[in-house]
């Protein structure tokens, strides 16, 4: 979808040259960020405020979601293509310290080829951050680990402040948009976060990809019923012509209405708007509910 086709209320923030140069420095430092890999429209704003979402476990994903800009793994099941890097946690730590990041968000590609789905690397990154940047809050955005509860426990045992897992869309659209994922499995993971820990649970839906409002409200209600604390809602944008197309540009008024509906369901915080992404304003949301 070209910028000229976007509705009037949807404005992309063009990052200044200084921010682009900092993104290049991050690449040279050997760390990857969702900010660049997933074509996030907010990366200029967030980077200028020293907010980053790190992406670990390699440059390629083992799944083929129809909406995602991250590169897909070419040879499924071959873990030797991108082995888990034992130096990665230290590189993330070094960047957090150099940028003065006070709320670090860490996510990953999905690694179904690994026995633990990459949970051990999440644990290592979290423990390394606690050691080298003890004042920094840690928010992890994890895959579903194919429903492996031991992998989830490995993540929770590292002691992050927030653990998120994105539902992304309504159950009817999972087969077309999220092959390899399962709506019930993702919902169960959110519930298990609250069952196994006192850590804040977070999730996200993207809008305008073919869902109806009734389907979305139903999915939000199910998510709230699992104890999810934080919900983000944002507009889907197609990364390219090869990805799922945008079916609707949701109005700011509808986003506002959905926010109020979410709060009435019991979510502690709902961030809802066209440019909202799952880690957008993560620090402010945490502070608003944790005090």
What is the helix fraction of residues, given as a range?
25-40%
Strand order of the largest sheet: 1-2-3-4-5-6-7-8
Structural class: alpha/beta
Overall body shape? globular
**The CATH H-level homologous superfamily:** Aldolase class I
Mean pLDDT: 88
User: Please, how many helices?
Assistant: 11
| Count of strand segments | 8
- Indicate the low-confidence ranges by residue numbers: none
Named at the architecture level, the CATH assignment is: Alpha-Beta Barrel
Task: Give the topology string: H per helix, E per strand.
Answer: HEHHEHEHEHEHHEHEHEH
Largest sheet, described in full? 8 strands, mixed
Q: What order do the helices and strands come in, and which of them pair?
A:
Elements: H1 17-28, E1 32-33, H2 34-37, H3 43-48, E2 53-56, H4 88-99, E3 103-108, H5 119-132, E4 137-141, H6 149-156, E5 162-164, H7 174-177, H8 183-196, E6 200-207, H9 213-225, E7 230-235, H10 252-265, E8 269-272, H11 282-290
Parallel strand pairs: 2-3, 3-4, 4-5, 5-6, 6-7, 7-8
Antiparallel strand pairs: 1-2
Helix pairs in contact: 4-5, 5-6, 6-8, 9-10
Kindly list the characteristics that best describe this protein.
13% strand; 8-stranded mixed β-sheet; alpha/beta; 291 residues; 8 strands; TIM Barrel
């Amino acid at each position: 979808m070209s910028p000229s086709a976007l509705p009037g209320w949807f404005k992309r923030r063009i990052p200044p040259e200084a921010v682009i140069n900092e993104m290049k420095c991050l690449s040279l430092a050997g760390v990857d960020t969702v900010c660049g890999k997933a074509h996030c429209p907010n990366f200029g704003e967030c980077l200028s405020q020293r907010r980053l979402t790190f992406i670990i476990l390699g440059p390629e994903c083992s799944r083929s979601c129809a909406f995602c800009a991250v590169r897909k793994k070419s040879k499924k099941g071959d873990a030797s293509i991108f082995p888990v890097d034992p130096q990665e946690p230290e590189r993330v730590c070094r960047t957090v310290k150099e940028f003065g990041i006070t709320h670090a968000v860490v996510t990953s590609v999905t690694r179904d080829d690994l026995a633990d789905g990459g949970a051990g690397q999440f644990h290592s990154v979290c423990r390394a951050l606690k050691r080298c940047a003890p004042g920094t809050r840690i928010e992890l955005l994890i895959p579903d680990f194919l429903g492996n509860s031991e992998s989830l426990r490995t993540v929770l045992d590292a002691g992050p402040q927030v653990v998120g897992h994105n539902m992304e869309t309504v159950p009817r659209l999972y087969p077309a948009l999220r092959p390899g994922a399962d709506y019930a499995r993702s919902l169960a993971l959110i519930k298990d976060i609250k069952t196994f820990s006192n850590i804040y649970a977070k999730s996200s839906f993207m809008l305008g990809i073919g869902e109806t409002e009734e389907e979305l409200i139903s999915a939000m209600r199910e998510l709230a019923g699992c104890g999810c604390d934080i919900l983000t809602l944002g507009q889907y944008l197609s990364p390219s012509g090869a990805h799922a197309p945008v079916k609707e540009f949701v109005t700011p008024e509808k986003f506002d209405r959905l926010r109020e509906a979410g709060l009435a369901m019991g979510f502690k915080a709902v961030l809802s708007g066209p440019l909202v992404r799952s880690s957008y304003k993560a620090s402010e949301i945490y502070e608003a509910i944790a005090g």
